# Entry
Amino acid sequence: MKTQFKNFCLLTGSTLVMAVGIYFFKFANNFTFGGITGLAVLVAKSGFLSASDFTFITNMILLVIGFFVLGKKFAAKTGYCSILLSVSLSLLERIYPMSHPMTTQPVLELAFAIALPSLGSAILFNIGSSSGGTDVIAMIMKKYTSTDIGKALLITDFMITLAGCFVFDIETGLYSFLGLAVRSFMIDGFIESLNLSKYFNVVCTSPEPICDFINENLHRGATIVEAKGAFSGEDKYIIFTALSRVQAVKLRNYIKQNSPDAFLLISNTSEIIGKGFHSI
# Structure
């Protein structure tokens, strides 16, 4: 129950962060990068539907299709996020209507239009969910075709962004292209940062105290390998362990105080699969 509540909070919080970034910074500046919300900006220009209402209607249609094609498991997380995002955008439009950008600094607005949705998307991807939209199309394509989904979605985003150059002005179009280019790198960067852990190689002569500290104080596991010093010829031991950033600081300080002759190699890693980290 604790894990489920944590995931629910993450789903809700990250989706609301996305909604704020999309409504206040993306829609207001007519930035057209990014799937359904980018297409919504183009549709809003016609005056037929607002960007928020188009996003709501399109996401609901895709949600229904995804439910029948992908099953109930799909609707559990992605469906909730898709509905919450669509409803949030519609509510923001009615509670705080915007006829112009919040500031006169388009670069600053673009930064928030990229950063907030990218952060929200990274959290969702990290817990096995998404905000719907073109991700639903990608899931359906993945199930029934051998199409390179990443390239297909990139081409779709590119065409929507290109259309923005003609529907709006070239300056808005160029800002949108910049947002399209930066967004994917920022999402990857956020995901790596969220998963960042420390991998330790500890070369020492007495591994027991260090392993006891890892097991009893940090509640982590470790592996001991016998080794021999190439220069000294002395018998050594290598301790392998993976820790969170907070735990890594504690272990480093402990070794510094209690085993100052130990040799440490500490590496950053965001791909640790196993008990206490990520499951396959």
Summary: The chain has two domains: 2-194, 196-269.
